[in-house]
Amino acid sequence: MWFLVSAIIFGSLFSIVFKVCQSLRIDTDQVIHFNYLTAFIIAVLSALLQSGGPDSVLQGFSPRWSNTIPALVEGVLFVLSFTVMDHSVWRSGVALTTVAARASLILPVIFSWIFLAQPAPAWLPVGIVLISLALIILPAESQKHDPSLLTNKTDVQRRRRTLIMLVSVFACYGCSDFGLKIVQQTDPHTDVMMGMIFISATLFSLLICFVKGSFRKHPLGIKSILGGFILGLVNTLCTASLLRALGAMSTGLFYPLYNIGIVLVATLTGIIFFKERLKPVQFAGIALSILAIVLFFR
Predict the structure, then answer these.
(1) What pTM does this model have?
(2) Is 190's pLDDT higher than 90?
(3) From CA 275, how far away is CA 268, in angstroms rounded?
(4) 267: burial class by Cβ within 10 Å (0-12, 13-18, 19+)?
């Protein structure tokens, strides 16, 4: 039970860390980069402790076409997921962004049915309808976290942009989860594959920093490094807690509690600490998402 609680806490911290970094005016592109650099270093240290020597680690990380391409693609998806989450937190707030990320669980099921010929659950059409309704009504009123939303934008334009960001979070997280499924089928050595994914994410996030002129606009400072270290530590601890909890609980019990717990913790945090105001129709959207998550594991 404690591993479930810790997984929920760490899983709900992603959007919260981005919100805090935004409040402190820390460059979140740099934070995302140092997050994956931290995760890669932890993965290498873990592999060293388990293998007992650097030679076996280097051999495990040796590139092969069979595992390099999936790792590169998944690393890009990891970075895109955090990038759109960062923008969505700025525009939509912690609560709505987290709901969109957790609702994306339905996408790997759909993709597995289409691309891997796995049987589709009988509830799948109902789940699609519930998630679609939730995504439509969640942006009922923009939270106006982005100052540019306050001027020269109609309510319809603000809702449309908010919807685009929430759908982007939903799509990126769903594709990333499906990509992990492909990666697991490609190479059974999970630690090695995660290390290669973190290498890919580190390099791609660094490329984004250079393309956007992040280091030129915001010279590298201790805040960016510390923010990235905290996010990377949260990322690693969430994964470790999740794996430990799965070892002690059935997936049918763990995943509903895990995802619903994250939605509830993030929603309460957004309302209590960040003063996010949700309309009744948005609470209805959150309820629809929770119902879809419950159906997911029936």
Answers:
(1) 0.89
(2) no
(3) 10
(4) buried
